[in-house]
Each structure stands twice: as structure tokens, then as C-alpha cells.
Amino acid sequence: MPQGEAHTGGCQCGAVRFRVTRLGRPSICHCRMCQKAFGGFFGPLVTAHNATWTRGEPKWFQSSNAARRAFCGDCGTPLAYETRFGLELAIGAFDDPTVAAPQIQVNLADRQPFFHGLTSLPERHDVSDEWRDFMAGIHSNQHPDHDTNDWPPREDT
């Protein structure tokens, strides 16, 4: 992980953005609280030693007596996890998630029993014309993967 280089990210709608230049160890956490907070099978997190919120502020949920979790109050995107040991940012919320490829798994007691088999599931490469047309017609309202001065974009009148 390049240190000193600015890494940015934020939520889906662009209401909350962050910047960090010093990252720690990226991990995936299998605890049940992370599963629920991310709505997935694990929580991908990286320690952020000097993160700043550059647009908006997240809302916080005290998920336990020892931790709180940040999310966008507008779109619900999970953004961070904080304990007395510091702040961790959601890897998927980075504009370039590859800057924090997970290096370790933690809280294995709660790991879902089917987790190891996920990468061996069949892959579907053939798609119907109907599905291809559906996908081609999608216009994303998500914030782009880079900082913007204004969001949403102003419409010319």
C-alpha cells in the first residue's frame, strides 16, 4: 500500500466523502455485526490513521458497547467502524478499492460455513439479449469514483 499518497472515497450518493494518506492492515471481518452492518458475508475494512471527512459527515450507530459504525444518512452506504483502537474505513467505499486488498481474515468463529466455496460457484457468461438490453439502459445515479466539486451535478438551465 502506497503511504503518503492520498486515497479518497465515499458513499453512493456523494453526500459523504473522505480522504486518507496513511493506511494500516486491510482485513475482512467475519463477525456477525460486520455481516449485518454490510449486508454481506463479511466486512471489508482497513485501518485509517489520518482520515478526514471532506464532504458532509456520516451518521453513527453505536453497534456495541465497544464500537460504533459510520454510514451515509442519505443513501445508507457503510463507511467506517471505530473503537478505542482507532478508525477503520470500508474498503469498498474507496474510489480505488485495490489500494487496500485484504491481507487477513478475523473473527473466524462467525464465518459463514459456505464462505470457502463461493469462488467455486459456477460463473454465468452467457446472457440473454433481454438482459443485455436491460443492462445497457441503466443510468447510474451513484457518485463517480473520484472527488467532485459539486454533487449531484448541476443541470444547465
TrEMBL record:
Family membership noted in the UniProt record: Belongs to the Gfa family.
Domain of life (superkingdom): Bacteria
Matching Gene3D superfamilies: glutathione-dependent formaldehyde- activating enzyme (gfa)
InterPro entries (UniProt xref): CENP-V/GFA (IPR006913), Mss4-like_sf (IPR011057)
CENP-V/GFA domain segment(s): 7-115
Organism (species): Devosia ureilytica
Keyword terms: Lyase, Metal-binding, Zinc
Lineage: Bacteria, Pseudomonadati, Pseudomonadota, Alphaproteobacteria, Hyphomicrobiales
Protein name: GFA family protein
Biased composition, class Basic and acidic residues, residue ranges: 142-157
Residues covered by region (Disordered): 138-157
One MF annotation (Gene Ontology) recorded for this entry: metal ion binding
Listed Pfam families: GFA
